[in-house]
Amino acid sequence: MAAANGALAEGAAAGSRGSAAAPSGRRELKVVIVGDGGCGKTSLLMVYAKGTFPEQYAPSVFEKYTTSVTVGKKEVTLTLYDTAGQEDYDRLRPLSYQNTNVVLICYDVMNPTSYDNVAAKWYPEVNHFCRGVPLVLIGCKTDLRKDKEQLRKLRASKQEPITYNQPSFSSHLRARTAAFKLFDAQVQGTRGKQFVSRSMQKFIWSAQQNVVKT
């Protein structure tokens, strides 16, 4: 991939080196989430940051959520940026990448096209604007893998749900990325919320361990 140019590239590069310390001894970490429209990005962030699951789908343009986590004796403020996945926003979305510390790339496990777009669109875009920034690849809507109606529709088009061990791109990305993590996210229900909270904290922290330092 060619290196990004201009001020935006400089901001992204700075983000890959580290984040500035927040007031009162806090650390700040900027996390940007990308992926196709409707793949589950917003639900994931709302469950993690607010503990609530949106009942209706409302396309996001650019939203920001803030939450705090404590790992060891470090208190970290996470600023989570939700971006629009629709093509209409392709020219505006890169503005969100400035000073990013971790990028979450999401796909819908019941929509193979959204998984294919990780390789075709999202990884190339993120690698261009946030080269060297740790990545987390997240499969959303895993509860629908057992939904009979959803499975019927998918199989009617001769497709199958994307699985955690899906061969191909995940292995390719692991080989090309210094800090890469992969997990499935089931966000509905109490167990889902607890799982998302634990997993997001674990994987974001693991992916950016070279960013927040003592």
Automatic annotation (TrEMBL):
<keyword id="KW-0636">Prenylation</keyword>
<keyword id="KW-0472">Membrane</keyword>
<dbReference type="Pfam" id="PF00071">
    <property type="entry name" value="Ras"/>
</dbReference>
<dbReference type="InterPro" id="IPR027417">
    <property type="entry name" value="P-loop_NTPase"/>
</dbReference>
<keyword id="KW-0488">Methylation</keyword>
<dbReference type="InterPro" id="IPR003578">
    <property type="entry name" value="Small_GTPase_Rho"/>
</dbReference>
<dbReference type="GO" id="GO:0005525">
    <property type="term" value="F:GTP binding"/>
</dbReference>
<dbReference type="InterPro" id="IPR005225">
    <property type="entry name" value="Small_GTP-bd"/>
</dbReference>
<dbReference type="GO" id="GO:0005886">
    <property type="term" value="C:plasma membrane"/>
</dbReference>
<keyword id="KW-0449">Lipoprotein</keyword>
<keyword id="KW-0342">GTP-binding</keyword>
<dbReference type="GO" id="GO:0007015">
    <property type="term" value="P:actin filament organization"/>
</dbReference>
<dbReference type="GO" id="GO:0003924">
    <property type="term" value="F:GTPase activity"/>
</dbReference>
<comment type="similarity">
    <text>Belongs to the small GTPase superfamily. Rho family.</text>
</comment>
<keyword id="KW-0547">Nucleotide-binding</keyword>
<dbReference type="GO" id="GO:0007264">
    <property type="term" value="P:small GTPase-mediated signal transduction"/>
</dbReference>
<protein>
    <submittedName>
        <fullName>Ras homolog family member F, filopodia associated</fullName>
    </submittedName>
</protein>
<dbReference type="InterPro" id="IPR001806">
    <property type="entry name" value="Small_GTPase"/>
</dbReference>
<keyword id="KW-1003">Cell membrane</keyword>
